[in-house]
Design goal:
Length: about 240
């Protein structure tokens, strides 16, 4: 579903954010990306939705060579790949319904499809009753659920989340992670970059660990800190 082969990304300022990285993620997986701030988690996600193009190496997403894609083909990729951010990025002047519908309308969807898909997604995230509200009338958790509904409205095969609970309190965090888990159970591949140790340790999913743009750990049912899954405990 996702494959990176010897991928490097150097920004124009000379920072090498991703360094000869290899990674495979299969269909239907749930993967955490962890690592210190500045270690390349967001950059790696940006390569997957072609916000950034690699300086070298191959990035394949759902059978498509993203690194060789023409600009005109990017919208089709973005339909297959939903993205959720820490700061929600909702349109403040639009209601919950309009925020979700807009993501479909820009793809040229027919009104009939909008009328069918928007309620489906709002129902999935539990916001059917708040569809007429504006973002500023919602809690942080509700705003993030709106953003998730928007990311899902095109039925993407992959959902990328960059610190999705970074602005949320613990109870909203739990609610969002349960939602992501449910979305994954329905078949969507989910990749979550996070700093939240409690979330990673509770969910016990695959943990890919980055350091200076390289993968330094990749564990099934991993923990936030390396090696905890192999019978070690943290001292102190
Ligand atoms: N748009 C950018 N231009 C230049 N450097 C960047 C840009 N985005 C990130 N970086 C740098 O790339 C490195 C990796 O950043 P990032 O991918 O945001 O890491 P993380 O998400 O793990 O905190 C950092 O050194 C950061 O300063
Ligand atoms: Mg980041």
């Amino acid at each position: 579903m996702i494959e990176l082969r010897s991928v490097s990304l150097t920004y124009p300022n000379g920072v090498r954010a991703i360094d000869a990285l290899d990674l495979k993620i299969g269909k239907g997986e749930f993967v955490f990306l962890v690592g210190h701030s500045g270690t390349g988690k967001s950059s790696l996600l940006r390569l997957l939705y072609r916000e950034q193009v690699p300086s070298s190496g191959d990035v394949c997403v759902d059978g498509v060579a993203v690194h060789r894609m023409r600009a005109g083909a990017v919208p089709r990729l973005r339909r297959n790949v939903g993205v959720v951010f820490q700061d929600f990025k909702l349109l403040g002047g639009k209601t919950v319904w309009e925020n979700v519908a807009f993501a479909l309308q820009v793809t040229g969807a027919k009104t009939r499809d909008v009328m069918r898909q928007v309620p489906r997604c709002l129902d999935l995230v539990g916001l059917s009753q708040k569809s007429r509200m504006f973002p500023h009338e919602l809690s942080g958790g509700e705003q993030q659920r709106t953003a998730i509904a928007r990311a899902l409205v095109n039925n993407p095969k992959i959902l990328l989340c960059d610190e999705p609970t970074g602005n949320l309190d613990p109870s909203n965090t739990t609610e969002i992670m349960e939602l992501l888990q449910r979305i994954n159970t329905k078949g969507t591949t989910v990749v979550v970059a996070t700093h939240n140790q409690a979330v990673v340790d509770r969910m016990r999913k695959r943990v890919v660990r980055l350091e200076n743009g390289r993968i330094v750990g990749d564990e099934e049912r991993g923990f936030y800190f390396l090696g905890l899954g192999q019978g070690q405990v943290l001292s102190g």
